[in-house]
Amino acid sequence: MLSEKTIQVVKSTLPLLAEAGPQVTEYFYDRMFSYNPELKNIFNMTHQKSGHQQFALFNALAAYAANIDNLEVLKSALARINHKHTSYHILPEHYSIVGGHLIATLKELLPEQFTPEVEYAWREAYALLADVCITEEMALYQKTKQAKGGWFGTRLFTITKKHVESDSITSFTLTPCDGKPVVSHLPGQYLGIKVHSKKTENTQIRQYSISQKSNGENYRISVKREGLVSNYLHSLDEGEHIEVYPPAGDFVLRESNCPVVFISAGVGQTPLLAMLQSLLDKQPSQPIHYLHACDNAAQYAFKDYLLSEVNTHQGLSCFTWFKEGAGADFTGLMDVALLTEKLPLSDGAFYICGPIAFMALIKQQLVNLGVAAERIHYEVFGPHQSL
């Protein structure tokens, strides 16, 4: 536990962090990659170029400093970070490297304010945070490794099936090369995919949601053709191999008997499909509403599957929005209020996945319609942000 003095010293640096802004983390990453270029094989360098990772880390630092005496407030955020770290195969030794560069960054950017007393407090505070994260992440690694079909690190998988779902989304069925079972995943979790593209000098790791329920034999990911790694995956053929980290992620279907509403846009369908399949398998009579938005009919992935399930399950209803063109129930931006009389606004569980702007819009719509915030669950691709 941290002393009261350490807590107060760390909290006193909040104005310094606010004044310095995200340039602290930009300097930190530049410094770290200069001294430890091997970490470029772990970190998402696309997020580095866009500034998203720097922004996310700055927010995390500020949140930690503000709540250092009550880490329970950060429990859900830390759980999400821990899961994401396991999909990158972050290990205890990485924390000492990151911590060293963080302290050095603060000393170099704020030499007058970052006194020996402040440095000591931040070293203690970082050590506590690192210990919490390492403990949780090693527990996740151990649990997955010991489970039936589990493994640690990467495992070689074969692309046993490619299936075009829309003009931009293709599904890949991944089967382990060793022919052994795969560990069960919770509906909504993702895989870390490690690739070696000739178009970049660094190994690239990306996370892709598993778009089918757990079956113990294989996984399916459904990938939109955009970005370096996604385009690389689309170039691969059936029979080729990729390296895969075990399933991770805390955006998962929660057990309950209440009605469920899934709301997605674009490739945000992927984790919700696994949830939908699992729910239909275990609780086929449970009321389920599926709302989906995309640009047009050509971009509507999994249409045939959803229509088939609607025809099979009386409790399932599906509504679509297209920005343009015919073939959907509604045209334009999704407006949940159009379904007010159909949706379980008072007692339903709502799961949202899609672009950040879309999720922020839908969350606000739901709140305006009286849906309690604790019944709204969402997944942000990339560095986590609040809606």
TrEMBL record:
<feature type="domain" description="Globin">
    <location>
        <begin position="1"/>
        <end position="138"/>
    </location>
</feature>
<comment type="similarity">
    <text>In the C-terminal section; belongs to the flavoprotein pyridine nucleotide cytochrome reductase family.</text>
</comment>
<keyword id="KW-0813">Transport</keyword>
<dbReference type="Pfam" id="PF00970">
    <property type="entry name" value="FAD_binding_6"/>
</dbReference>
<keyword id="KW-0408">Iron</keyword>
<dbReference type="Pfam" id="PF00175">
    <property type="entry name" value="NAD_binding_1"/>
</dbReference>
<protein>
    <recommendedName>
        <fullName>nitric oxide dioxygenase</fullName>
        <ecNumber>1.14.12.17</ecNumber>
    </recommendedName>
</protein>
<feature type="domain" description="FAD-binding FR-type">
    <location>
        <begin position="152"/>
        <end position="254"/>
    </location>
</feature>
<keyword id="KW-0520">NAD</keyword>
<dbReference type="InterPro" id="IPR009050">
    <property type="entry name" value="Globin-like_sf"/>
</dbReference>
<dbReference type="GO" id="GO:0051213">
    <property type="term" value="F:dioxygenase activity"/>
</dbReference>
<keyword id="KW-0349">Heme</keyword>
<keyword id="KW-0560">Oxidoreductase</keyword>
<keyword id="KW-0216">Detoxification</keyword>
<keyword id="KW-0521">NADP</keyword>
<dbReference type="InterPro" id="IPR017927">
    <property type="entry name" value="FAD-bd_FR_type"/>
</dbReference>
<dbReference type="InterPro" id="IPR000971">
    <property type="entry name" value="Globin"/>
</dbReference>
<dbReference type="InterPro" id="IPR008333">
    <property type="entry name" value="Cbr1-like_FAD-bd_dom"/>
</dbReference>
<dbReference type="Pfam" id="PF00042">
    <property type="entry name" value="Globin"/>
</dbReference>
<keyword id="KW-0479">Metal-binding</keyword>
<comment type="function">
    <text>Is involved in NO detoxification in an aerobic process, termed nitric oxide dioxygenase (NOD) reaction that utilizes O(2) and NAD(P)H to convert NO to nitrate, which protects the bacterium from various noxious nitrogen compounds. Therefore, plays a central role in the inducible response to nitrosative stress.</text>
</comment>
<comment type="similarity">
    <text>Belongs to the globin family.</text>
</comment>
<dbReference type="InterPro" id="IPR001433">
    <property type="entry name" value="OxRdtase_FAD/NAD-bd"/>
</dbReference>
<dbReference type="InterPro" id="IPR039261">
    <property type="entry name" value="FNR_nucleotide-bd"/>
</dbReference>
<keyword id="KW-0561">Oxygen transport</keyword>
<dbReference type="InterPro" id="IPR017938">
    <property type="entry name" value="Riboflavin_synthase-like_b-brl"/>
</dbReference>
<keyword id="KW-0223">Dioxygenase</keyword>
<dbReference type="InterPro" id="IPR012292">
    <property type="entry name" value="Globin/Proto"/>
</dbReference>
